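Figure 6 in text form: structure in, sequence out.
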């Protein structure tokens, strides 16, 4: 008799920009295949929550031969990847004993919490469990800043006073022109239905222009025009577009007068009254490599096409002075009256419709003893400690749901720092680049092996119930249960006295779920809005009663708050800040590296799945001009070197990237050889561990050399 196949709705909670619905087809307790949302919309504008290749390939991840099945104890040099199997009791006892000893000798902040975004959208399971445990243990040293978009966050808070800056993706259908600037949603998702709505917008007649150093799949799929630009020069082009719009009197004076402050100061800078340098298209062309005529044409089209969406990605902001790119884009949106208007945009995408805040309850927590260091300075904090000006002497690292060691710059220094620790713990599904350094590795469940609720990463008005589809793989346990068992051994009472289902009902108690059982069975609840969410619509419709959350209550093109910071490299109006002496390219490293997000991975996840490798290989994109000068042919193995390290990978010689620039997709798990050279194309083997004065991580300002391997 054939076994019954049960369809179980499961969310996909990873840090890719989407929050999609997966359907696990389960037979005899095994996931046989995975499909996605095939339902009809519940309400107008609510599209299917359809998953990408990575989500649909998840079965290969669940049952991968390298998946961790039981607790491991280090059996070789830290980082060697040599482990032996141990029991859960031995693993938990070992961790608890070391935590207690380290706290007794060095204090609780000697423990660095290096957990990250592996299960970012899970409301209950994930890294929050270890934050709670360490807070109850007496404190911790945490990591601060946002590696992905700190420049955008800074710019949005200073300009708009908020981070919920993005309209519903459905509103792209109301745009007559869409500029996708440094934005590649075909690969990086950026909202479950973004590509769907871009396709519909193009079919509806919207003109779509892509500005990017690469001819990305998004540019190839959606754009009628690709404008190649040098990395780090985006701000100059935006400011030159502002010059054209001002010079030809195409800006919206009424909008600027009513909703903004500081435009006069910005205009003086743009027109050259401040420094005798008019920011003309010719001026920008020398910086950007974009022909002056192309800048003029784009500026005119953007200013005269109503409404138009200037939709930007995070990549141009991950540069030195990257916050200026975002501030300039926001200013252009205001100059054209596109902020708060249907079919327009804000020039910055951080968070969209704040459904999370409306339907989810997140309990507050923390410890007054906590310390923090910048994400990109964690290795220095371990190596130098208080003697180097850091807030604690770190002796232990705890990592849950993250691969921070791999995803931040200068992995050679990371290797050196971790080898100085007294103890390290990791919860994971695989022996990641981070887990390889742990003394104890706990095998964690995936979201297929536990239940949770999820909201959209940024965009959309829905909530997903991710049901438990199968029993835990091997001896895997969920992160909360692991921490609860540790809490008992640490003498912590009341860590988690509530069942999973009670927690999920509490977390969604504001969501107005009429029938909990139906919600679980269906897997989602889609909300119908009276009208699509438009960022800052309320402010534009009634500025007197709904001001912006800035000190002035308006869009701040000039920011007194920034002026008060007295940072010479961060002007109070958007400016192109030319590279300073310390940033001037060393002739030894003549090429600019950018580190794209690709369809083959979500940060460092999915890199080991066969279906994903079939779709896209790990290669360095290099223009034929640069390749020819180095004797490099397509498929040749090359060595990429910077001031901090080197990596080896195949070359992809292509006209889809501009001369002088190369791309290595981020996410490959580094493997250092005896010489300290990465051998698998890990971008962070060559990216430095630095940050700017406003905490931007400028990976896309990295300079490298590329040479053919002998």
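Output sequence:
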């Amino acid at each position: 008799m054939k076994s019954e196949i049960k369809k179980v709705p499961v969310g996909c909670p990873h840090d890719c920009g989407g929050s999609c619905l997966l359907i696990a087809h389960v037979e005899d307790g095994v996931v046989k295949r995975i499909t996605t949302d095939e339902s009809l919309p519940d309400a107008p504008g609510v599209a299917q929550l359809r998953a990408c290749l990575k989500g649909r390939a998840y079965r290969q991840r669940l049952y991968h031969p390298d998946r961790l099945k039981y607790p491991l104890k280090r059996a070789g040099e830290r980082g060697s990847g040599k482990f032996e199997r141990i029991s859960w009791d031995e693993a938990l006892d070992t961790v608890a004993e070391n935590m207690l000893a380290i706290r007794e000798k060095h204090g609780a902040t000697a423990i660095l919490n290096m957990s990250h975004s592996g299960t970012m959208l899970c409301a209950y399971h994930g890294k929050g469990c270890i934050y709670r445990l360490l807070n109850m243990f007496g404190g911790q040293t945490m990591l601060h800043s946002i590696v992905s978009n700190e420049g955008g966050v800074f710019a949005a808070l200073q300009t708009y006073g908020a981070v919920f800056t993005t309209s519903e993706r459905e509103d792209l259908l109301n745009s007559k022109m869409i500029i996708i600037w440094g934005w590649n949603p075909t690969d990086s998702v950026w909202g479950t239905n973004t590509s769907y709505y871009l396709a519909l917008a193009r079919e509806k007649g919207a003109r779509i222009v892509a500005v990017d150093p690469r001819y990305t799949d998004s540019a190839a799929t959606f754009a009628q025009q690709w404008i190649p630009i040098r990395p780090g020069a985006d701000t100059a082009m935006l400011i030159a577009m502002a010059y054209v719009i001002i010079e030809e009197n195409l800006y919206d004076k009424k909008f600027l007068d009513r909703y903004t402050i500081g435009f006069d100061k910005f205009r003086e800078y743009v027109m050259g009254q401040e420094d005798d340098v008019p920011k003309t298209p010719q001026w920008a062309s020398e910086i950007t490599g974009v022909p002056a005529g192309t800048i003029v044409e784009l500026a005119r089209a953007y200013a005269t096409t109503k409404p138009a969406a200037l939709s930007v990605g995070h990549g141009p902001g991950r540069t030195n002075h990257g916050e200026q790119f975002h501030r300039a884009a926001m200013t252009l949106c205001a100059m054209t009256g596109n902020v708060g208007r249907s079919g327009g945009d804000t020039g910055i995408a951080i968070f969209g419709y704040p459904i999370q805040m409306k339907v989810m309850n997140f309990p507050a927590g923390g410890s007054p003893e906590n310390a923090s260091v910048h994400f990109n300075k964690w290795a220095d904090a371990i190596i130098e400690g208080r003697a180097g000006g850091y807030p604690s002497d770190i002796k232990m690292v705890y990592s849950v749901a993250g691969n921070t060691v791999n995803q931040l710059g200068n992995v050679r220094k990371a290797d050196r720092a971790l080898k100085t620790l007294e103890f390290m713990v990791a919860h994971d599904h695989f022996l990641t680049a981070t887990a390889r350094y742990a003394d104890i590795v706990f095998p964690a469940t995936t979201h297929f092996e536990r239940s949770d609720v999820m909201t959209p990463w940024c965009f959309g008005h829905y909530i997903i119930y991710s049901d438990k589809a199968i029993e835990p793989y091997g001896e895997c346990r969920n992160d909360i249960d692991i921490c609860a068992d540790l809490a008992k051994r640490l003498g912590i009472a009341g860590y988690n006295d509530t069942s999973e289902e009670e927690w999920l009902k509490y977390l969604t108690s504001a969501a107005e779920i009429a029938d909990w059982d139906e919600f679980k069975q269906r897997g989602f609840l889609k909300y119908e809005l009276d009208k699509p969410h438009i960022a800052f619509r309320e402010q534009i419709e009634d500025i007197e009663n709904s001001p912006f959350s800035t000190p002035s209550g308006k869009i701040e093109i000039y920011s007194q708050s920034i002026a008060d910071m007295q940072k010479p490299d961060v002007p109070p109006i958007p400016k192109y800040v030319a590279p300073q002496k310390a940033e001037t390219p060393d002739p030894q490293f003549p090429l600019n590296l950018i580190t794209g997000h690709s369809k083959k991975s979500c940060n460092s996840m999915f890199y080991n799945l066969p279906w994903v490798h079939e779709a896209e290989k790990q290669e360095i994109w290099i223009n034929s001009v640069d390749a020819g000068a180095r004797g490099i042919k397509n498929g040749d193995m090359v060595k990429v070197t910077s001031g901090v390290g080197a990596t080896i990978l195949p070359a992809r010689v292509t006209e889809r990237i501009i001369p002088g620039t190369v791309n290595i997709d981020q996410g490959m798990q580094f493997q250092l050889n005896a010489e300290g050279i990465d051998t698998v194309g890990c971008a962070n083997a060559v990216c430095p561990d630095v940050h700017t004065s406003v905490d931007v991580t400028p990976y896309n300002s990295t300079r490298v050399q590329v040479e053919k391997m002998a």
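Caption detail: Residues 88-106 form the longest helix (19 residues).
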